[in-house]
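During the reporting period the student researcher (J.K.) took over the structure-prediction task from the postdoctoral fellow and processed the backlog of single-chain submissions. One of the processed entries is reproduced below for the supervisory committee.
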Amino acid sequence: MSLAINQTITNSITIPGASYIPGLVFRRFRGEADYPNIWAIISACKEVDGTERTDTLQDVARNYAHLHNCDPYQDMCFAEVGGKVVAYTRGWWETDGDGNWLGFNLGFLVPAWRGRGIGRALLSFIENRLREVAARLIETGQLSASMPRYFNNTASDTETAKEALLLHAGYKPIRHEFNMVRPDLENIPGAPLPLGLEVRPVLPEHYRTIWDASNEAFRDHWGYIPTPEEEFQKMLEDPIFDPTLWRVAWDGDQVAGMVLSFINKAENIEYNRKRGYTENICVRRPWRKRGLAHALIASSLYALKERGMTKAALGVDAENISGALCLYESMGFRVVKRTTIYRKEMRDLIPDTWHLAHDI
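J.K. obtained the following structure tokens:
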């Protein structure tokens, strides 16, 4: 099904099956003029959805300056009621290490306008748009018609409205991720580096080597997607970027493993805490099963404590076959939140029953 575009109203979009709400219109992205709208919608959702976010207008601008596999002028839709933006959605795509083409979508709808069909309409739009993108890639030979294609989304266990929307639209939970927190930075386990390895101060000339090593190390993980150049450039501009906190183990001129810690100062101020993050924990194949991850995490925890932090956090795939969950638990981390990855097979047409569903 192709979306009908109303050419009589600049950039307006007609979404078949959308609920009638007086004053409701759907439109396309208007460039930088929409950054304040995006920021306002995210801010309006975070308390109700239980998501800890401290996005600024500058964060939105930085993110949209480094989009990947996404044309926001085609791959976004905004909902307005009476001229006020109340929701938006954006889609993009990736190919994962298992040979799947994944059409990702995100959306935010201010709580006051939920339960009226706006979220359902936006999801309908973005799914159709991703179908069009996949069809174009197949036509141009950039995507094999035989490659499995899916819609992909995520929702934490506090985002109940989003979970209901996805389940009603036919998405199925396929994987879980845990947010883990170490409630204090006392009694950090001692863990020496394996023989022959050393941790060195990270210099700018190391950034690319470390980035490439991280991409290689994560290839063995479920759902691996190569991190694109756009994300590397965005990392360099991020206010939380602080390589002095990184713990990178070297074996000669080879990166063996790493923990790329950071401190989100704005988040700590908003939530009145002193938390650092031990993230991007990975070890390359030749150096695994030698206790390197244990040693790097311990060193990272000490580094965060030296910066005045009193807690540490990280995210982990709940079914990680490397034993990461057990390792993190042994280092004092405990699960505090669960996020579910949802997936739906991409078909050429939306089932007729979709338009008969009750409003969400």
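The committee noted the following: The first helix runs from residue 35 to 49.
J.K. will present the remaining backlog at the next meeting.
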